[in-house]
Amino acid sequence: MTHLKVGDKAPEFTAINQDEKEVKLSDFKGKKLVLFFYPKASTPGCTTEAKNLRDNYDLLKEKGFEVLGVSADSPKRQKNFKVKNDLPFDLIADEDKKVINAYGVWGPKKFMGREYEGIHRTTFVIDETGTIEKIIDKVKTKEHAKQILED
Prior knowledge:
By secondary structure, the chain is α/β, with parallel strands linked by helices. It contains five helices and nine strands, in the order E-E-E-H-H-E-H-E-H-E-E-E-E-H.
């Protein structure tokens, strides 16, 4: 789905998080970043995925990773999702889909025979220099951290 590939420079972005504070890709320079895109805050699959990352957050941090989630939800909805699930990482409220489109994760989807446009659950692992190191386009919500950590 995405036009990006491993070895590409990750698209720079400036967006707002759940607290309406500005977050930029360049804020993570010198660190590894797990940038995960999910369809909608507080839905079952997205909650399972976010909780898996939360439960493995210390291990991810130990391995040098920062974590940042992105969906097209409003800052208020992202904040509720973060607070309700005790998520230790920021969530980007990409209502205008600038980040989503820059990473090429918006497109046609099918669910129960119905076609619609939406966010494809995709994760980008970005290295310390801003280069895409890994793309996970078949995210297993219950084993997401494991997918990030395996070679």
